[in-house]
Amino acid sequence: MNPTAGCILIVASGVVAYIISSIYPALNPLFIALIFGIAFGTILESREIKVLAEKSLIVTLPIGIILYGVNIHFPLPWNFPPRIVLLTFLSAIMLGTAVYLFARILGVREKLTLLLTCGTAICGVSAIAILSPIIKPKKEEFSAAIIIITVVGLTGALLYPFLGYILGMSTKIYALLTGATLHQTGLVVIASKPFGAEVLKEGLAVKGIRIAMIALVTLLISFLYAEHRFYIPWYVVIFLLVAFLTSFVLPPEVVELLRPLSTIAFSITLASIGFSVNIRDIQNIRLTPLIAAYLGWFFAVGIFLFLIMGWVP
Description:
Distance between the termini: 60 Å
Number of domains: 1
Radius of gyration: 19 Å
Helix content: over 70%
Order of helices and strands: HHHHHHHHHHHHHHH
Number of strands: 0
Shape: globular
């Protein structure tokens, strides 16, 4: 395959992934783009396009991460009741800790464990993609983490409405549950819609608190796990700066115009990674990380439910 056709295919995979996610919000565009890349790369079996995809990451990865900062909005703590902020932080800590412990007990590789931990605790696929340049996992670990987090998150989006009805949750409890424990924003939308616009609004607000934690976690991971202490890639620093400008400086109209572009750019990055991955390497990772992610998530959600059912009216 010639380079021009390869570039067109990679870009088209990212754009189509964005279009599909616009129609079906439960399907994260980054996940879809990665799957497209893996699928096309496997079908074509073109050495040339794999090399092209790997080289393109030098450009697409920094641009994708920087522009994705437009999707991050730092909520002001005083806009929320203190116990909601506290419970949201507590949920993120419990989710991350539970997944980390189960993964280590089951012998999951350290870097894959970190990706699963951060993806579960904060904002799913986005957290994995943003933190990967610091953690530096193998491409198959990166891809497996995104697939696992998406599968577990979709499970939650399907189960939560039934759980809400069976347990007779109030709107506040259900909104807190979805925003504080589901992996991705699109999944919060899907799980909240059956309970009305108010639950959806509150669930997304709580999810916003977790998404904003990406800044703190990026600094923490860079200090603990980077090759050089407190090293953060320059484009991750600019990503955090863009997120700050989006939250406090840029007009909302400008942010809304930039969001589709930022998501498409990051989707193209994930498509590039998908094209460069060997699917056989992903298959070699097996089911243990998926089991660890499920066990940690179920355990943390169970404890969180016990807490909020007795504390939130």
